[in-house]
Structure formats: C-alpha cells, structure tokens
Design brief:
Number of strands: 11
Structural class: alpha/beta
Pfam family, one: TrkA_N
Domain RCK N-terminal: 3-119
Number of helices: 9
Radius of gyration: 21 Å
Domain RCK C-terminal: 139-218
CATH superfamily of the largest domain: NAD(P)-binding Rossmann-like Domain
GO molecular function: monoatomic cation transmembrane transporter activity
Order of helices and strands: EHEHEHEHEHEHEEHHEEEH
Helix content: 25-40%
Strand order of the largest sheet: 3-2-1-4-5-6
Bound molecules: adenosine-5'-diphosphate
Oligomer: single chain
Number of domains: 2
InterPro entries: NAD(P)-bd_dom_sf (IPR036291), RCK_C (IPR006037), RCK_C_sf (IPR036721), RCK_N (IPR003148), Trk_Ktr_HKT_K-transport (IPR050721)
CATH topology of the largest domain: Rossmann fold
C-alpha cells in the first residue's frame, strides 16, 4: 500500500481512533489539537503531534497542511470551529477533506461548504448495531448507495455442500456473490461449480431488501 500523509485535527475519541489505526497501518499521520495534554497523549500513536488552532489560517499553512493527501476534521462539540476549519481547508485547496458531524444540520453545512466525506459516527454506529441485531449473520457491510449494499454474511447452513450453480442465488434472491472468504483466503468471482463449505463467508451485493431476506435464511 502506498504511504499517504494524513492530518487529523482534533484528538478526541474519534480523532484518536482514526489517527491510531492509520498509524498502525504504516501511514504518516500528523495529529493536531488545541490542548497540550491531548497532543502529548497522542505522541505514541502518530508520526508527529502539534498544538495548533485549526481555525487560524496561519497555523494551518505553517504546518504545510496543503502537502497532505487527506485531512480529517474530528472536531465535534465545537461546531463553529469544525465549520470554520473545513472552510479554511477548502479555500487552501486540500485534496480530500473528511469531517465528523454531530448531527444532521451540522452535516448538511459541512457538505455544503465542500467536505468530501461527512461522517456521523454515532448515527452510523447505531445503525450498525441495530443491523447486526436484526441479522446476526451479517458481519460487515459497505453502503454503496441508499438502497444497495455489499455485505459479508455467514452462509445459511443448508447451503453448505452445494455449489453456486445449483443454489442459483442470483435468480432466487436477486443477490450476487462477488467473493467467498474461506479461512484466510478469498476466492474472487467464484465459479458456478464452487462448493460452499460450512465456515464460508459470502461477500454479496444487492439491494438492502434482497440482502436482508437472503441473510435471514436459516
Ligand atoms: P470526541 O467526541 O471524538 O471525543 P470532541 O469534540 O470531544 O470529540 O473532541 C474534539 C477535539 O478537538 C478536542 O480534543 C478539542 O481540543 C479539539 N479541538 C477543538 N477545537 C479545535 C481547534 N480549533 N483546533 C484544534 N483542535 C481543536
């Protein structure tokens, strides 16, 4: 994986976990926060951490913020600072701005001023938890659009030992299998003759409604 440069502004709970994960994956991460203790605490899990106020253009430019591939604005509670920071970053021509929103209105403003990706951590996590409760077979998913998902699900038990051709999942459920995860391997575009095994995970694509029906099979 190519190494990219990320700046995470706001080292609260959300910013910290984004920064930590990127750093663990070998990416270059600059952590920025107003508060000295937050910056000190971040030192072990980022490439560099600095105290700065992201609502001051000079502070941002002196950090060379325009050289970063992606800037994550993880300021939540101080909505004014979050918005001002995104406006400044946008004006400076940052390639990719990701911003955390506390609620719908905040998110709409962030989108309107040009954030490339607005994240609603609480809403999204709440939906994930509910989806997991509703269909325990659903392990992981990506929302492609409002109606379409890619979902990773454990196979319905009665499908083990059968091949994809005889199961005819696409015709019966309107769901396509794009890959099978087997132990640590992944079989991409499995052939129709592939026999499903009890521990297999299916990577499926389809409408949420069709996927929900498919993943509720016993
Ligand atoms: P979380 O819910 O993820 O913990 P918070 O909103 O509580 O998020 O934390 C946001 C962090 O952003 C805090 O550590 C705060 O000090 C920092 N922060 C707020 N405003 C600025 C700013 N203008 N510049 C840099 N950091 C900021």
């Amino acid at each position: 994986m190519a190494i990219k440069q990320y700046a995470v502004i706001g080292l609260g709970r959300f910013g910290t976990s984004v920064a930590r994960r990127l750093h663990e994956a070998g990416q270059e991460v600059l952590g920025i926060d107003l508060v000295e203790e937050k910056v000190e605490a971040a030192e072990g899990y980022v490439t560099d951490a600095v105290i700065a106020d992201s609502t001051e253009e000079k502070a941002l430019t002196s950090l060379g913020i325009t050289d970063f591939d992606c800037v994550i604005v993880a300021i939540g509670n101080d909505i004014q600072s979050s918005i001002l920071t995104v406006v400044l970053l946008k004006n400076l021509g940052i390639q990719k701005i990701i911003a955390k929103a506390l609620g719908k209105r905040h998110g709409q403003v962030l989108e309107a001023i040009g954030a490339d990706w607005v994240i609603y951590p609480e809403r999204d996590m709440g939906e994930r938890v509910a989806n997991q409760l509703l269909s325990p077979k659903l392990l992981n998913y990506i929302e492609l659009s409002k109606n379409y998902n890619i979902e990773e699900i454990t196979i319905p038990l009665r499908m083990a030992g059968k091949n994809l051709k005889e199961l005819d999942i696409r015709a019966k459920f309107n769901v396509s299998i794009i890959a099978i995860v087997r132990n640590d391997d992944i079989i991409v575009s499995p052939s129709p003759e592939e026999l499903l095994q009890p521990e297999d995970l299916l990577v499926t694509i389809g409408s949420r409604k069709d996927l929900a029906k498919f993943s509720s099979l016993e």
